[in-house]
């Protein structure tokens, strides 16, 4: 299960970087690499990124319901 989480997180990061490039420079890196937005490989990447985002909703919901995000474990706040 850890491998699936890492793969889906990586795909979401790739998607986020791609959206940054689209928003800032009007450049779609996925489309440029994989043959345009209508290219079969580009569409597969878009679908995989979207499915990864949906999959990551489960760990996100668990983290929110427990009140602790894994990245915050072990940190202390001193006032």
Structural features, described:
By secondary structure, this protein is mainly alpha-helical. It has one domain (2-67). It is built from 3 helices and no strands. It has helices at residues 2-25, 29-33, 40-66. The longest helix is centred in the last third of the chain and has 27 residues, at 40-66. The radius of gyration is 16 Å and the shape is elongated.
Number of helices: 3
SSE-based structural type: mainly alpha
> Could you name the ranges where pLDDT drops below 50 across 5 or more consecutive residues?
none
Rounded radius of gyration (Å): 16 Å
N to C succession of SSEs: HHH
- % residues in beta strands: under 5%
Number of strands: 0
Distance between the termini: 38 Å
Number of domains: 1
What characteristic shape results from the CA principal axes? elongated
Portion in helices: over 70%
Mean pLDDT: 88
Brief write-up:
This protein has 3 helices and no strands.
List the helices and strands and how they pair.
Blueprint: H1 2-25, H2 29-33, H3 40-66
Helix pairs in contact: 1-3
Question: Characteristics of this structure?
Answer:
79 residues; mainly alpha; elongated
């Amino acid at each position: 299960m850890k491998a699936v989480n890492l793969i889906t997180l990586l795909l979401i990061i790739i998607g986020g970087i791609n959206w940054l490039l689209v928003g800032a420079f009007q450049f779609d890196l996925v489309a440029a690499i994989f043959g345009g937005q209508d290219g079969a490989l580009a569409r597969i990447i878009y679908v995989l990124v979207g499915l990864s985002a949906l999959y990551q909703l489960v760990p996100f919901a668990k983290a929110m319901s427990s009140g602790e995000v894994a990245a915050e474990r072990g940190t202390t706040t001193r006032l």
